[in-house]
Amino acid sequence: MMQIFRYLFSGVLFFSFIFPFNDVKAQKDAGLWANVSLNHQVTRRISVSLSEQIRLNQNVSQVDQVFTDAGITYQWSKSFRTGISYRLSFRNEIEFYETRHRFYVDLSYRLRKRPVSMTIRQRFQQQYSGLNTSENGDIPEWYSRTKLAVKYDLSKKYTPYVSVEAFYLIDNDDEDNQTFDQMRYEAGFDYDFNRRHSLNLFYMVQTKLLGKESTKFISGIGYTYSF
Question: What is the DSSP annotation of 114-174?
Answer without folding.
Answer: TTEEEEEEEEEEEEEE-TTT-TTTTS-EEEEEEEEEEEE-SSSSEEEEEEEEEEEEEE-SS
